[in-house]
Write a structure and sequence with these properties.
Number of domains of chain A: 1
CATH topology of chain A: Jelly Rolls
Distance between the termini of chain A: 45 Å
CATH architecture of chain A: Sandwich
Radius of gyration of chain B: 19 Å
Number of domains of chain B: 1
Strand content of chain B: 35-45%
CATH superfamily of chain A: Exo-inulinase, domain 1
Number of strands of chain A: 13
Structural class of chain A: mainly beta
Order of helices and strands of chain A: HEEEEEEEHEEEEEE
Oligomer: heterodimer
Helix content of chain B: 10-25%
Distance between the termini of chain B: 44 Å
Strand content of chain A: 35-45%
Structural class of chain B: mainly beta
Largest sheet of chain A: 8 strands, antiparallel
CATH architecture of chain B: Sandwich
CATH superfamily of chain B: Exo-inulinase, domain 1
Shape of chain B: globular
Order of helices and strands of chain B: HEEEEEEEHEEEEEE
CATH class of chain A: Mainly Beta
Number of strands of chain B: 13
Helix content of chain A: 10-25%
Radius of gyration of chain A: 18 Å
Largest interface: A-B, 11 and 11 residues
Chain lengths: ~220, ~220
């Protein structure tokens, strides 16, 4: 009986490790303690509390300072403080950010917002979409305070986003997008294959926590 | 007689050719007729009037769509119609512009504004360098501005007088206004453009450009 329990325990541990962040070639970009390797630009900021990155004010972004990334997967584990809060993950930013608007207009924001209708935005502004540009293939965001896992695949000019295991976005550069409706929406046009990336802090009313930001190269 | 004539003709050609060479090195980017090769982003626009580019509204820019430029001299010949007319020449823009603020924050604007202080007047890198001279012609007269992009070194000559001599990495004053450019290095090569900017009282500036040309730096 004990042997069987041990076997089960061993199998469970194995499964947990394989599914966990340490497996599968993931490299942790947030050390759980401080913002080493990250830099903030624009209004507001980010702090680390209880091992989590916490957004303050905005709109700004905390970008990863090590350079451009492409042909990789980015995994972000986040939760909203309230039932719904606004944040996002910037990708494909062509030059190192100095302020918050170049990333909007020349990169993409993978949106975090489960209730875009409350700010008069349509479903192209839902969690997991390329903000204002793609239509969600699924609405898979969980309300706060539940944790969500977002995986962003940058495969050359193709961008795939899954939220909690469901595919929300599958977009390849050059495919048609809707017209720009608001002046805060991104300018249209191609984004680069490799770019800087970062986490958005949206406003005082939108507090989002990140417990993991990880990356692994694409297997080719 | 015929032989001598041919010899004379050949010699004349030899003499004439070298004298012609420098002028031929300039490539005109504005054809004097329309905006072929240029694209507007941001508010306002440019009009072609009597063979000249004229600024309307703003703030926006008309950028040259032929790609990045470095190791070159850019020549603009311009005039203002009021002392507080405002315009400029964007240089070293790292990526193709889609709107007006990325060029401000990641490129440089060589300022055109005679009413500005020593960090914001004609020929300086807007808000970043101190004018070495005030070299503008009186309102209404043509000015020639030559902007040399020599790797990370930027020199601005206004009517033959040096106004700016700046190399990437040299210290600059702190940013004091939210519309001033973010500090930091600019690339050796970048997109270029002409700024359309209204006056302080919001009326259109009347800045005219009659020539925009480039030539490659000899190395």
């Amino acid at each position: 009986m004990l042997k069987r329990s041990l076997l089960i325990l061993a199998l469970l541990s194995f499964a947990t490790v394989a599914a966990g962040a340490e497996g599968g070639g993931w490299k942790q970009l947030f050390n759980g303690k401080d913002l080493t390797g990250w830099k903030h630009v624009g209004p507001g900021g980010m702090t680390v509390e209880d091992g989590l990155i916490k957004t303050h004010g905005g709109m700004g972004l905390l970008y990863w300072t090590a350079g451009k990334v492409g042909d990789c997967q980015i995994r972000v584990v986040f939760r909203m403080r309230d039932r719904n809060d606004n944040s996002g993950v910037f990708i494909r930013i062509p030059v190192e950010p100095r302020e918050e608007w170049m990333p909007v207009h020349y990169g993409y924001e993978v949106q975090i917002d489960n209730e875009p209708e409350k700010s008069n935005e349509d479903e192209y502004h839902y969690t997991g979409t390329l903000y204002s540009l793609t239509k969600p293939m699924a609405k898979a965001g969980k309300p706060g305070p539940e944790w969500n896992t977002m995986e962003i695949t940058l495969d050359g000019p193709r961008t795939i986003v899954t939220v909690n295991g469901q595919k929300v976005t599958d977009y390849t550069e050059g495919q048609p997008v809707p017209e720009r409706k608001f002046d805060f929406e991104p300018q249209r046009g191609r984004r680069p294959v490799k770019g800087w990336f970062g986490l958005q802090n949206h406003s005082d009313n939108d507090i989002v926590f990140f417990k993991e930001v990880a990356m692994r190269p694409l297997k080719k | 007689m015929m032989r001598r004539f041919i010899l004379f003709f050949a010699l004349a050609l030899l003499v004439a050719l070298p004298a012609q060479m420098p002028a031929a090195e300039w490539k005109q980017l504005f054809n004097g007729k329309d905006l072929t090769g240029w694209k507007q982003v941001g508010p306002g626009h440019f009009e072609v009037e009597d063979g000249m580019l004229k600024t309307v509204g703003g703030m926006g820019l008309l950028y040259y769509t032929g790609g990045k430029i470095g190791n070159s001299v850019i020549r603009v010949v311009f005039k203002v119609t009021k002392p507080d007319d405002n315009s400029g020449v964007f240089i070293r823009i790292p990526i193709e512009p889609r709107e007006e603020w990325m060029p401000v924050n990641y490129g440089y604007e060589v300022q055109i504004y005679d009413a500005g202080d020593e960090h914001h007047c004609t020929g300086v890198l807007y808000s970043l360098t101190t004018a070495m001279a005030r070299a503008s012609k009186p309102t209404g007269e043509w000015n020639t501005m030559d902007i040399t992009l020599d790797g990370p070194h930027t020199v601005v000559m206004l009517n033959g007088t040096k106004v700016t001599d700046y190399t990437e990495g040299q210290p600059v004053p702190e940013r004091t206004k939210d519309y001033e450019p973010q500090r930091g290095r600019r690339p050796n090569e970048g997109w270029i453009g002409l700024q359309n900017h209204p006056r302080e009282d919001k009326s259109d500036s009347g800045v005219y450009f009659k020539e925009v040309a480039i030539k490659t730096l000899k190395k």
